Amino acid sequence: MIGMLKDFLLLAGQSILHRKMRSWLTVIGVFIGITAVVALISIGLGLNKTIDEQVSKVFGVDTFMLVSEGAFGPGRNGGAASEYALDLDALRSIDGVKVAAALRERTGFVVGPTGPDGKAKQGFLTVMGLSSELMTDFSSFTGPLDVEPGGRMFEPGEIDVAVLGSRIAERLGADVGDTITIAGDGDAELQMRVIGIMALSDQPDGSDQGFRMGAGGPDADTIYVPYAAMDRLWGDANDVLITLARVKKGYDVEEVADRVEEELNAGGADITAVTYSDISDAIGTMTSTVSAFLAGIAGIALLVGAVGVMNTMFTSVLERTREIGVMKAVGAKNSHILLIFLIESGMMGLVGGIVGTGLGLGLSAVASAFIGRFFSVRMAVVASPGLILITLAGSFLLGAIAGLWPARRAAKLPPVEALRYE
Amino acid sequence: MIMPLLDLKGVTKDYRMGKVVVRALRGLDLAISPGEIVAIMGPSGSGKSTLMHILGALDTPTGGRAMIDRRDLTELRERDLVRLRGRRIGFVFQTFNLIQTLSAQRNVELPMIFQGVRRSERARRAKELLEKVGLGERRAHKPSELSGGERQRVAIARALANDPEIILADEPTGNLDSESGAQILALLERLSREDGKTVIIVTHDPEAAAIADRIIRLKDGRVIGDDRDA
Questions:
Q1: What is the pLDDT of residues A350-384, one digit of tens each?
Q2: What pTM did the predictor assign?
Q3: CB-CB contact of A208 with A80 (8 Å)
Q4: ipTM over the 0.85 cut-off
Q5: Does residue A65 lie in a domain region?
Q6: Above 50 in pLDDT, residue B10?
Q7: Which candidate, A142, A147, A135, places its Cα nearest to that of A210?
Q8: B37, B96 Cβ separation under 8 angstroms
Q9: Domain span at residue A109?
Q10: Distance between CA atoms of A316 and A325, rounded to whole angstroms?
Q11: Contact A413/A321 with Cβ under 8 angstroms?
């Protein structure tokens, strides 16, 4: 039977080559569809991979973040703007947590340094408390937090120091070395020494530097103070925007994240732990939905190609009716005839698949380079052997399926009628 | 008496053409013994082609009994009919009916492909058969590169591929000049005399009839004459 298949392959091939022009036109119809599908799938996969890489670069695979429950997930764009209560020390004591950092934000009454006129400027301003670990352990997450020359960011252990957003510094008339006063709940009040002015970022869109993800990001209108200072001013944290935690070596990030979520929520919190894979899954779901949609549209082109194959095969069956009769007269079974025609249409599909895969991958490489340049990232080009193999098998199958109907018609031709056909 | 190889008794064949039923054979009796050369003659519409198709197991009778080697065609399954055509019957057509895309060699191999004959064995036998019909040098030629007489010789070689007992030739000289026709007839005669094949020729050609042992005359779907030549 295998040997027979080889002979049928030769018979089908000779018949295809005999009608070069028509076969090529049919193949073109197929490969346009395949090209579109392969290119779109490959671009989609590349996009997914690139986003994944970017996410993992920023986020780290051993890190998770806490956001208020419901802030993350389908329907929300990953924002973490809702505030929530958090016991940072409790978090740090959970098994597997290596380091944790949080960021909380309040609007507080702030009094600037006394000016030359003897008056101090004052107002309600945004005060943001940062764990020093944010700078030391999660710098990839926060991005560069540069202060202007002459100043510095606060260091672990410091409490009564502040770094001012550039516009705040201007409004309060404060400079490095000055003291400002921040009033908290009740009588709480802290004298804070200004140790730095936040440098304006060099981002072209004018936005300020830092915080690539999550909480609003530092801006020129915020006062930055150590996290511990916030505790003194406003007590236990119920105004946390975002918390980051890294797990110890050898611990599974998902497992620790689940435990943290469970334990903290049992303690009255209302948070969700978001890991790297949650984020890339969410983005992946989005991008694969989009690319599946696009591939679906490309599939229509494929369908048109398949109809082309069917048309060609019907013509071929008609033209070769006599030939079919002869083959039957010399002992061909119906199944032999069916197979010869299926192989013929499958081969046209396969050739279309080979050409289409090549063109599709090429197209995807070009498009990736283009997209990459546009978003200034190195876009991954995905050309997995699996994808190629599936495409080739699929295109053979597409051809064969398109040829099934004509081939069945050929196989069922009564030999006498086929021989009589002019 | 020798057991007939082909034995038809009261065979009828109806064709439905639209709403009209055409009766191509109307109770035909015919027995053909192994090794005979039989010419079947008759005006067009006499049922020659229909008879040919039944003798070749390409079609089955509507009524009556058609035995090929003691097996009733009407009782055979499609599978067995296919096997019969493939192994025991060789066809030669008026228009040669070679596959245009295949070389002479591959055309002769074709019937063997469907019988699952091994490649090397197939090639050897096709070469041998083409040499037998005098085309040993033209094996690689496509039908379009061969003359009419040569094409018909390729067709005869193809008919012999699976070494059948019966050769059915439908107007084998109809599309040939007289010289080529004479060569073909000589070849068919040799197949009977030397190899013991049963050769049945449907023909208008008196030259073809001349090599026959018997001439069966058909009219209106019946045998009206059966001349045993000297």
A1: 999 999 999 999 999 998 888 888 877 777 777 78
A2: 0.74
A3: no
A4: yes
A5: no
A6: yes
A7: A142
A8: no
A9: 85-269
A10: 14
A11: yes
**Domain stop point among A269, A292, A324:** A269
In chain A, which residue's Cα lies nearest the Cα of B168? A329
The token pair that represents A76 in the structure block: 């929300």
**B110/A327 Cβ within 8 A:** yes
Instruction: Classify burial at A58, counting beta carbons within 10 Å of its beta carbon; exposed 0-12, middle 13-18, buried 19 or more.
Output: middle
At A86 the three-state DSSP class reads coil
CATH topology of domain B6-100+164-228: Rossmann fold (3.40.50)
3-state class (DSSP) for residue B32: strand
Q: Are A100 and A165 part of one and the same domain?
A: yes
At B140, give phi and psi (nearest 5°): -85, -5
Spell out which residues of chain A touch residue B110, defining contact as CB-CB under 8 Å: 327, 330
Domains held by chain A: number: 2
Q: Does A73 fall in a domain?
A: no
pLDDT band at A238 (very low <50, low <70, confident <90, very high): confident
| A188 and A336 part of one domain | no
Are the C-beta atoms of residues B107 and B99 closer than 8 Å to each other? yes
Report the residue of chain A nearest B111, measured CA to CA.
Answer: A330
In a domain, A100, yes or no: yes
Is pLDDT at A207 greater than 50 in this prediction? no
Residue B99 has φ and ψ, to the nearest 5°, of -80, 115
Is residue A313 located within the same domain as residue A203? no
* Secondary structure letter of residue B199 according to DSSP: E
Q: B79–A333: do the CB atoms touch at under 8 Å?
A: yes
Q: Where are the domains of chain B?
A: 6-100+164-228
- Give the relative orientation of helices B78-88 and A321-329 as an angle to the nearest 10 degrees: 80
Domain end, chosen from A269, A298, A329, is at: A269
- Summarize pLDDT for A132-188 with one digit per residue, the tens: 888 888 877 776 677 888 888 888 888 889 998 888 888 888 889 899 999 988 888
Residues of B in contact with A419 (CB under 8 A): 58, 93, 97
B83 CB neighbours in chain A (<8 A) are 331
SS3 A101: strand
Residues A239, A116, single domain; the answer is yes
Ramachandran bin of B183, using left for φ above 0, alpha for ψ from -120 to 50, beta for the remaining angles: alpha
pLDDT at A1 over 90: no
Considering only CA atoms, which of A184, A215, A187 is closest in space to residue A107?
Answer: A184
